[in-house]
Design goal:
The complex is a heterodimer of chains A (about 450) and B (about 70).
Chain A lengths: L2 H16 L14 E11 L5 E14 L2 E13 L2 E2 L9 E4 L6 E4 L6 E2 L4 E15 L2 E12 L2 E14 L4 E14 L11 E2 L21 E17 L2 E14 L7 E5 L19 E3 L5 E15 L2 E12 L4 E13 L3 E12 L9 E2 L22 E13 L4 E12 L19 E11 L1
Parallel strand pairs in A: 15-21
Antiparallel strand pairs in A: 1-2, 1-24, 2-3, 3-8, 4-7, 5-6, 8-9, 9-10, 10-11, 11-13, 12-16, 13-14, 14-17, 15-16, 17-18, 18-19, 19-20, 20-22, 22-23, 23-24
Chain B lengths: L1 H18 L23 H14 L17
The chains are: A mainly beta (about 450), B mainly alpha (about 70).
Chain lengths: ~450, ~70
Amino acid sequence: MKKNIRLSLAAASCALLGSHGAMAEDKHDVGDWDISAALLFYSEPDRVTATEPVISAKKQIDTDETLTLKLTLDTLTGASANGAVPTNRPQSFTSPSGGTSAYTAAGETPLDESFKDTRVAVNAAWEKPIAKDLTMVLGTNFSTEYDYTSFAVSSTFAKDINNSNTTLMAGLSLGMDMIEPVNGKPVAFGTLQTQGDDDDEDDDGNKVKNGSDDTKSLVDIVVGVTQVIDQNSLFQLSYSLSSSSGYLTDPYKFISVVDPTTGIPLFENNAQPDLPTVVYENRPDSRLKHSVFGQYKRYIGGDVLDTSYRFMVDDWGITSNTIDVKYRWKFADTQYLQPHVRVYQQSAADFYTPFFIDGQQPTVGDTNSEASADYRLGEFMAYTVGLEYGQDNPSNSWSVALEYYLQTGDEPSQAFGELKNQELYPDVDALMLRVVYDF
Amino acid sequence: MRKHMLWIAVIASSTLTACSSMGVDPWQRQNLAKPEMALDSSPLNTALDDHIYFSKEASSGGRSFGGGGCGCN
């Protein structure tokens, strides 16, 4: 949902650059509505499938004043890794609602089959010059899905200096998210599936879900500079600070508890012997991220080279590097082909724990301990390769892009026994098809 | 963390110093003004991509604000 803020900020800086020499080719008459639509298909083999239609409408209120409204629909179906380890025998997991069991064959990664959701997001951004060479963008974002609601407001200022060759920008975003997990928030390290008839309590009669909702708050600050280098090139450099606090745990992720000798998950449920013992995860209640982002664009005789790099470090112990390169090759006046390569690398969070050895798991309700087996907090590399074809016609423009995404990480070094025979960190790959049409 | 902050400060100040010696006159902006030279020339594509990466990776934002707004991560 932050994407519209991102859009607005970028639009603010671009508009400023373009307003002096003119983004004439992109200007609309006062009163005009400029409508764009996009559709994304995202598919992971045997896992998540998503369809995401977006419609955006931008009204030219005045020469340099615009209002942008955007509606996004996000439909997810399929399965997502639930955090438990695979093993040499079948496993079943009760769904978050406590109903049907998801069956996992021997040697397969346990998945949460109930991963279905429809998310609706509405974004609005109002861009207006407030003084000579100073533009303000006010934005608001709202999104809702069945267990998650988010609201944010933002303001960004962009100031032109140095004969309009330099644009300084600063922005602040404040957000509040409400999380309403199915059956309520789980208790940290609450033990699941150890007895047959009551999934709400562990063997000692402790509740594993406390039935409540929770919130998290987000504060984002961005400062940046955009600089024209010469007639054909420019760059942007920005620093952002992102602070989140509150409930940052994934309420649906488990951690397996394995036997200290064999490395096989414990199966302690006499009534349903295929239910392995798992515990809920618990993450810190705050996170502070620093990011530095640099982008360089160069016009090369009709073509455009677009490169960017991002460095991120946070207080969870994660650092990441992202390199993104696109080359827009123009041909036949109005058509282009754009190959795209993205390389992403991240280190693991300090509390990333692929499994617990029985006896080493924190006690139920111990919120001072932190652990998660979410593979997205592990160490991995990700690669994207794609190709976009587009047409820039006078009355309408459109593009279609096909991209392939691959996430790959090393097996955890602490694996032993049966865990060494299993693929604990399987590759995740996805195909993405994007279509964008500007009316 | 302090070391990172120092580097950020050094990069930011040297960038601003260097900026004053770069640039073009208004009549030399023909290529820079083309829509495909906008820093984010396809905002809808960028937004869709960012949403995917937000849900699959532990990093977000950078270009601008990042994080939150979705139960997917």
